[in-house]
Amino acid sequence: MVSQKTSSAASLPLLFDVEDFKGNFSFDALFGNLVNELLPEFKDDDSDSVDGVGGQEVLPNGNLRGLQGSSPPMFPAVDELLAVFKDSCKELVDLRRQIDARLQNLKKDVAIQDAKHRKTLTELEKGVDGLFDSFARLDTRIASVGQTAAKIGDHLQSADSQRETANQTIELIKYLMEFNSSPGDLMELSPLFSDDSRVAEAASIAQKLRAFAEEDVGKQGMSSAVGAAAPSRGLEVAAANLQDYCNELENRLLARFDAASQRRELSIMAECAKILSQFNRGTSAMQHYVASRPMFIDVEVMNADIKLVLGDQGLQAGPSNISRGLSTLYKEITETVRKEVATILAVFPSPNDVMSILVQRVLEQRVTAILDRLLVKPSLVNLPPVEQGGLLSYLRILAVAYEKTQELAKELQSVGCGDLDVEGLTESLFLGHKDDFPEHEQASLRQLYQSKMEELRAEAQQQSESTGTISRSKAGLNPSTQQQISVTIVTEFVRWNEEAISRCTLFSSQPASLATNVRLVFTCLLDQISQYLTEGLERARESLNEAAALRDRFVIGTSVSKRVAAAAASAAEAAAAAGESSIRSFMIAVQRCASSVAILQQYFSNTISRLLLPVDGAHAASCEEMGTAVSSVEGAAHKGLLQCIDTVMAEVERLLSSEQKPTDYRSPDDGNPPDHRPTNACVRVVAYLSRVLEVAFTALEGLNKQSFLTELGNRLHKGLLNHWQKFTFNPSGGLRLKRDITEYGEFVRSFNAPSIDEKFELLGIMANVFIVAPESLASLFEGTPSIRKDALRFIQLRDDYKTAKIASRLNSILSES
């Protein structure tokens, strides 16, 4: 702290103390304490100097200047301040020296103490190392003592165990001697074996004695077998008595178990079950409990099951009703088993074993009983009548029963069935039916097909009888009286097959067996569709054959009366109408065949193909079989289409023969202008072709349509050539022929057959041989050499062939070429 100053600077006391520099040191506070006592007037002048009071002016450099005259010095106590500052410096130097000296002393003390401390630490480290060595030796000793104690404990425990075993052996020998006293005598046994409160202990001891006795008896039997001297047979008596006692005890426990079961005393049931588990692992108790369930011993329950599933109609109830009945029955069975679970868990020490026995008994007794009533396998020799459902009813019931029983197995497995293979057991219930089901499926499909065919024949017969007023000839030619191909029936075939395939998928678990069964069933469909379509086409062909026979029947000669000729013409018109109707009927049959084959192919692609692909060769083999079936249908259709062409051409020839007049192509030179209309025969033929082929354009498709129209066009071209060779042509007749050819060409253009169009174009060019002058024939041949062969033949039909000496002209033309 700063002390009070005096008038002399030399007499000033100490200005500083070491304490002034401790704590929160502030230089401003220290300096203020030095000068505030020497400059007290400046404390009050600070505020005045700020406000400009006292007549002073603040200069720009910060100094004050009086407003009037000169002023006294700024710091009158400057000398005193300098003295104070000098003293302060001296004291500060002295303080620093004192501090430095003290620091040196402290450093020496610290060094001394540090050396002592290091020495102490070194000594402590040596002591700690010794302690660690002592602890290690102690730990080793403790471990050795512990091992010794453990060995002693093991010996003591072994000795105690041996003592206990010896005591138990003594007791067992004593009990064994009691059982070995005399055969069948169980009256002199220890109270242990008759005390109901110690049944568990008695059962345990009896089982041990029995095991020992039976083992000894077994060893004696082996010794006797090798020819050794016969030992004592006393333990055989004990074994027999123990067996009798165990049987009696087991029966007593089972009786107590039954009594407790009737009273629903689960604790007593659990106690008995636990004791009985020592007898054959409790198998007798578990089987006894399961066998005593009402659903296995109550006849009313079994009758109710059959009533629930079959109702009053028996197997005639139908698969849907049977399915609902099985669902209800299996649901009841599952609930019954689920209720038994709580009791089994509370009573038996091995509940999984009990559940296994229970579920097995349910499937083998209760489920098998209802399946035996449902699944009566029919004979393949004497099939059940279709009126009673036929084989299809059996197969549908089999599928329903299998599917519902599989669902029951899954439900029972979720409830709990121990280690029982529920799926394998369920499969075994249907094994006899699944092995034979492919044969039954094929037989069922054949039965359905035969039944459907009989139904269709009956309908056709009934329709034929309803039109009995029509003559037999007319009825035979009326397609409506015959059985027509129906796409609906083919769709029904596919539906039967699809249902059979679904059963194959249900019954066949392996891809190989599934593919085999699917192929067998699909082959039945191929046979059915092929046979149905082929027979339908054959029936349609019969109409064409009958129309041809009727047409040939009314062919007459030329030397007949007008009345006979008129009657024959009328009959020919009727035959033509019958042929036209037969063509239309056959075309419709072909169209329906094409639709049916498309349905078959789509069914194969969507359903069958994916089931056959997993097995090598199965898909390719089925494709080949399907190709063979379709080829047989195409063969029948091809024959019928050729017959249709024959029928068409026969009518064309009839129309040309009856309607074409010689004057059509050799009109008289009467001065009238030539007729540029097509001949009446041409008009009639084109009208007939347009009418009869209308159905062909809609019924046929693709290659069938193209080949049919191409063949018809070729036959028409050939028929017209043969027809025109019967006439003689003059130039005007040639023009009319050219008009007929144009009419025919325009019609056949609708065939979309370029080769036919080309032939009729050449016919139009060839007709020019009747029009041009004889001297222009050479230029005609030169312009179109392709017509030369037919043209040379037709030139001879010119009416001026001889008069104009065209033969010689032709020879010269041919020689020049």
Write a brief caption for the model.
The protein is mostly helical and about 800 residues long. Helices cover about 75% and strands about 0% of the residues.
Strand and helix layout:
Blueprint: H1 27-35, H2 41-51, E1 56-58, E2 64-66, H3 78-179, H4 199-225, H5 234-262, H6 266-276, H7 283-291, H8 294-297, H9 299-310, H10 319-347, H11 351-374, H12 390-415, H13 422-429, H14 431-466, H15 472-477, H16 487-507, H17 511-553, H18 562-612, H19 618-659, H20 680-692, H21 694-699, H22 702-724, H23 731-748, H24 754-766, H25 777-783, H26 788-795, H27 806-816
Antiparallel strand pairs: 1-2
Helix pairs in contact: 3-5, 4-5, 5-6, 7-11, 9-10, 9-11, 10-11, 10-12, 11-12, 11-13, 12-13, 12-14, 14-16, 14-17, 16-17, 16-18, 17-18, 17-19, 18-19, 19-20, 19-22, 20-23, 22-24, 23-24
Plain-language structure description:
α18 runs antiparallel to α19 (618-659). A hairpin with a 5-residue loop joins β1 and β2 (64-66). A two-stranded antiparallel sheet has the order 1-2. 73% of the residues lie in helices and 1% in strands. It has helices at 27-35, 41-51, 78-179, 199-225, 234-262, 266-276, 283-291, 294-297, 299-310, 319-347, 351-374, 390-415, 422-429, 431-466, 472-477, 487-507, 511-553, 562-612, 618-659, 680-692, 694-699, 702-724, 731-748, 754-766, 777-783, 788-795, 806-816, and strands spanning 56-58, 64-66. It contains 27 helices and 2 strands. Among the domains are: 80-170; 293-462, no CATH class; 481-632; 660-816, Up-down Bundle (Methane Monooxygenase Hydroxylase, Chain G, domain 1). It is mainly alpha-helical and 817 residues long. Mean pLDDT is 80; it is low at 1-12, 47-70, 227-232 and 469-477. The radius of gyration is 64 Å and the shape is flat.
